[in-house]
């Protein structure tokens, strides 16, 4: 009885306070609305090409420690077109709406058992768990909240390896994995494990025969990513899962770039562990999840111990607003996956065609069919990636070239594909997403075409090729 | 009481200054941007011209290739014209562009004395971009060497047989 009354009272309180929550939301809406005013922004971008980079960068206002912030002024200067969705994605306004009550009024600790503050938050967190599970065809009890895909990958790989240490001490992964997977494996090598790094073909995909040959009686885990973050190729998850299950080996997949973008079913694909990131799917930053199969049970040694939250696999209070945001992002992704995929495929085709129609010697890295269309990695031969990025200052992009690092080593992913070093230095990644517009894509095409031509006129390599010199035959002077 | 308030104000200001400094470090220096957007002396000379020295340094695999050409007035020994083409990042393009401006009108000996540190200082290159300025130094030295080698071959052939000089210079290039 008293419990019911308590819940009722909290509901009443909530509806009373709803208006204030709504106000907070409206106060923020101009910023989120800015996402959609791309047409206006585009016009301003063309006018403002002479602006220097620092002027187009948004800096926090002196009083942003409070709740005020400066509005981005479209008429004065503009921010670049965002085409780096593999790095992070903007927060979907619907996700923010779902999170807002838990940022303000509903602040209970979801692990509090003794009062309604805890119960209402726990209910929301469990609802979010349900949404995440639905997206990948899992049961909500199999979802563990983490701080992001990096933690999920660390927990999956180190957790399985350490739990089964002694009986099994071999791990299989690929050369093109994300750094956090490769580094987890490196740490395990120091702890006495053996790691096989599978090579990939020139299209970026693994060869199933290589995987089968690498499996040993003491193999504990196979960790192969779903969608590559640099080139967007989709590994044959179903075949890998089938093989691993038949050999009774756990299969972990880093699906940070795949979840919500391509259909994933952990049962159909026989996935035992799967890593999810919030901010790659229009959710909040700082939250992720890991799917841990219950039947047949996967056991993990936790990385973080303490209060025993999340089935003892990840202690620490679950950040309820972030968890709710991740759940909302997964729900939106599930509802709109087909629509988003079709739209992004269309934009992607348009981008690739628009560029390759007008620029010669452009190579797309990664398999053109077995890949996620929102990740387009192009190499512009005889043009250095970073200089092209500098020219494309009106567009936020990422390059496979790593001239900024002292090593001068280009992307290890592109090198694993067997790409020539000069082609790896010439690569740029275009990341399209839910909020990318046709106008933005057209703008990007026009800019890329103009600047590649300009930089090639400046390139000694382009000149030699025009003269018919084979640059691969030249003995280059290596500098320190 | 008063003193306390002032200290807090100062602390706040220095806290706020930090993000702006970070932005400045991350983006390119205005001088680099200027050279990159308006590169000086882009182009090529005929490398078979006996009075042109060509320096081609770097490697595509490293992400930087610089071609620097000088045209020398034989009587005064001064560099009368310069051209460059560069495959590389913005700093590499800026370094070579700056170098072409710097050496124009100089004698070969003076030009050979230009150090990479001067280029780096002028363009305010960060430590990770220092190799761009080293490449510019290598490029001018290599161009001067090429010119001197060409002249030595030309004068050697000229003493042997003045008619074959042009062919010899062309062959050596």
TrEMBL record, chain A:
- Keywords, comma-separated and alphabetical: Iron, Iron-sulfur, Metal-binding, Mitosome, Pyridoxal phosphate, Transferase
* InterPro entries with a match to the protein in the record: Aminotrans_V_dom (IPR000192), Aminotrans_V_PyrdxlP_BS (IPR020578), Cys_deSase_IscS (IPR010240), PyrdxlP-dep_Trfase (IPR015424), PyrdxlP-dep_Trfase_major (IPR015421), PyrdxlP-dep_Trfase_small (IPR015422)
Q: Which reactions fall under this protein's catalytic activity?
A: (sulfur carrier)-H + L-cysteine = (sulfur carrier)-SH + L-alanine
* Presence of keyword Iron: yes
The cofactors named for this UniProt entry are: pyridoxal 5'-phosphate
**Entry's Pfam families?**
Aminotran_5
Aminotransferase class V domain residues are 81-442
Q: Quote the EC number.
A: 2.8.1.7
> What superkingdom does the record give?
Eukaryota
Q: Which PROSITE patterns match?
A: AA_TRANSFER_CLASS_5
Q: Which family does it belong to?
A: Belongs to the class-V pyridoxal-phosphate-dependent aminotransferase family. NifS/IscS subfamily.
* This protein's name: Cysteine desulfurase, mitosomal
Which organism is the protein's source?
Actinomortierella ambigua
Automatic annotation (TrEMBL), chain B:
GO CC terms:
mitochondrial matrix
Q: What is a single Pfam family found in this protein's UniProt entry?
A: NifU_N
Intracellular or extracellular location(s): Mitochondrion matrix
Which keywords are on file for this protein? Answer: 2Fe-2S, Iron, Iron-sulfur, Metal-binding, Mitochondrion, Transit peptide
Cofactor(s) the protein requires to work: [2Fe-2S] cluster
GO terms, biological process: iron-sulfur cluster assembly
Pathway the protein contributes to: Cofactor biosynthesis; iron-sulfur cluster biosynthesis
Function field:
Scaffold protein for the de novo synthesis of iron-sulfur (Fe-S) clusters within mitochondria, which is required for maturation of both mitochondrial and cytoplasmic [2Fe-2S] and [4Fe-4S] proteins.
Task: Please state which protein family the record places this protein in.
Answer: Belongs to the NifU family.
What is the protein named? Iron-sulfur cluster assembly protein
Q: Which organism is it from?
A: Actinomortierella ambigua
Task: State the encoding gene.
Answer: ISU1
């Amino acid at each position: 009885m008293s419990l019911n009354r308590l819940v009722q009272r909290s509901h009443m309180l909530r509806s009373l306070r709803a208006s204030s929550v709504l106000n907070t939301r409206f106060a923020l809406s101009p910023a989120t609305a800015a996402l959609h005013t791309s047409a206006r922004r585009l016009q301003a971008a063309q006018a403002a090409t002479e602006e220097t980079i620092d002027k187009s960068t948004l800096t926090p206002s002196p009083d942003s420690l409070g709740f005020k912030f400066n509005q981005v002024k479209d008429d004065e200067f503009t921010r670049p077109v965002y085409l780096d969705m593999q790095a992070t994605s903007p927060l979907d306004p619907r996700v923010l709406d779902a999170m807002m009550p838990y940022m303000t009024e509903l602040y209970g600790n979801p692990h509090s058992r003794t009062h309604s503050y805890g119960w209402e938050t726990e209910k929301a967190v469990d609802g979010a768990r349900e949404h995440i599970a639905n997206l990948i065809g899992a049961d909500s009890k199999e979802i563990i909240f983490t701080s992001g895909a990096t933690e999920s990958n660390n927990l999956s790989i180190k957790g399985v390896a350490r739990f089964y240490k002694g009986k099994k001490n071999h791990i299989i992964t690929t050369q093109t994995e994300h750094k956090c997977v490769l580094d987890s494996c490196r740490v395990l090598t120091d702890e006495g494990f053996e790691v096989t790094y599978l090579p990939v073909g020139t299209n970026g995909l693994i060869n199933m025969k290589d995987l089968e040959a690498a499996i040993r009686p003491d193999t504990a885990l196979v960790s192969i990513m779903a969608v590559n973050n640099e080139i967007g190729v989709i590994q044959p998850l179903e075949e890998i899962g089938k093989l691993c299950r038949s050999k009774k080996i756990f299969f972990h997949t880093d699906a940070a770039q795949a979840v919500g973008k391509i259909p994933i079913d952990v049962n159909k694909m026989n996935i035992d562990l799967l890593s999810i990131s919030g901010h790659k799917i229009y959710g909040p930053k700082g939250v992720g999840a890991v799917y841990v199969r219950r039947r047949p049970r996967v056991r993990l040694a936790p990385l973080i111990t303490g209060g025993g939250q999340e089935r003892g696999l990840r202690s620490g209070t679950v950040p309820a607003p972030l968890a709710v945001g991740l759940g909302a992002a997964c729900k939106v992704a599930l509802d709109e996956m087909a629509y988003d995929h079709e739209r992004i495929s269309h934009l992607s085709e348009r981008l690739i065609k628009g560029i390759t129609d007008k620029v010669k010697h452009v190579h797309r890295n990664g398999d053109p069919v077995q890949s996620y269309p929102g990740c387009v990695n192009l190499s512009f031969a005889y043009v250095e990636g970073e200089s092209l990025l500098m020219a494309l200052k009106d567009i936020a992009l990422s390059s496979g070239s790593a001239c900024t690092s002292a090593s001068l080593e280009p992307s290890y992913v592109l090198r694993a594909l067997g790409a020539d070093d000069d082609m790896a230095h010439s690569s740029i990644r275009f990341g399209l997403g839910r909020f990318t517009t046709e106008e933005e894509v057209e703008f990007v095409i026009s800019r890329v075409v103009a600047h590649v031509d300009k930089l090639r006129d400046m390139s000694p390599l382009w000149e030699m090729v025009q003269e018919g010199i084979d640059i691969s035959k030249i003995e280059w002077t290596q500098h320190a | 009481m008063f003193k306390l308030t002032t200290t807090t104000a100062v602390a706040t200001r220095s806290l706020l200054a930090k993000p702006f400094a970070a932005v400045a470090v991350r983006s390119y220096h205005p001088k680099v941007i200027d050279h990159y957007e308006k590169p000086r002396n882009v182009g090529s000379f005929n490398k078979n011209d006996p009075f042109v020295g060509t320096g081609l340094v770097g490697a595509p695999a490293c992400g930087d290739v610089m071609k620097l050409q000088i045209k020398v007035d034989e009587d005064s020994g001064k560099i009368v014209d310069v051209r460059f083409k560069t495959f590389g990042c913005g700093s590499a393009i800026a370094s070579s562009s700056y170098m072409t401006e710097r050496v124009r009108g100089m004698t070969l000996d003076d030009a050979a004395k230009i150090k990479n540190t001067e280029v780096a200082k002028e363009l305010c290159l960060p430590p990770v971009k220092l190799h761009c300025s080293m490449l510019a130094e290598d490029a001018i030295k290599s161009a001067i060497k090429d010119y001197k080698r060409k002249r030595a071959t030309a004068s050697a052939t000229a003493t042997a047989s003045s008619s074959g000089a042009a062919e010899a210079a062309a062959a050596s290039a």
